[in-house]
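Comment thread on ticket #2218

A.B. wrote:
> Attaching the input chain for the structure job we discussed in standup.
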Amino acid sequence: MSKPKVFIDGEAGTTGLQIRARLQFRNDIELISIDPAKRKDILERKRLLNSVEVAILCLQDDLAKQTVGMLENPQTRLLDASSAHRVAEGWVYGFPELTQGQPARIRKARLVSNPGCYPTGAIALLRPLVDSGLLPSRFAASVQGISGYSGGGRQLIDAMEGRGGHRLAGDFRAYGLELTHKHVPEMTVYSGLEQAPIFNPAVARFRQGMLDFIPVHLWALPHKVTGADLHEALALRYQNQRFIQVMPLETYAQHHPVLDPQRLNGTNRMELFVFENPEREQALLVARFDNLGKGASGAAVQNLDLMLGLEGDHTYEYFGD
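C.D. wrote:
> Ran it. Output below, let me know if you need it in another format.
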């Protein structure tokens, strides 16, 4: 029986390189690569796109949209790692842990959109709490995030690492201050919120790793809710999940004063935390994961395996450059 063929369109980019690194030693698929000299050859890309079972798009949004129009083979399925189709009609959202039925939807879908990095953590925290009624659908959510600079792509990587004689000044950059970041629609739709959250991301001088923070004023909720209630709901939702772990409520004592954003680098894992100050009736929800792992390439491989029916004991780990 022949192995399913997989083509990574844009394999020379940050996400594409890491997806390939996670797949290159697998013996249950056949990776198809384009001749480096033909990476911008539309006809060659189109030929390869229509010759495989799954094509993974690691492209800029506009190019990803154009590439979908090149699809002619009814047997070819697409996994888009860009942000072009995350809330688009006809596409299935590639976050298997979103709901109980999401893995089955991904398995059957022809078009799957890989989640964004920051939304992955925010949705993982918010959706179970909205579904359980602990947070109302009109909850005024605020999401703060900090990421390694690899999430900004090759241009930012080069600037942060001083390639080409230029080094970006400073160790920390806040951005998205116009409050119109492209991740916001995705966070809103899949978290179950009626109103868009305020989202303010930042990038720091470490290559990869990520933390998402969501503060909760427990006293402002319509019903009495404690940090333990939030923790219990998250633990119940993810109790049988392989890649998402809800950390003990007491974990704050183990991590004070540092919660290292790089601890899960190279993996497809995510850790969720609930910190509470009962006297002030405040809680802080935190997601920790690798922005290139569960936030991008690791998640893409997880989705690919669902689409091909190859779920197994793959680690999805990558500790290379």
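A.B. wrote:
> Thanks. Noting for the ticket: The first strand starts at residue 5 and ends at 9.
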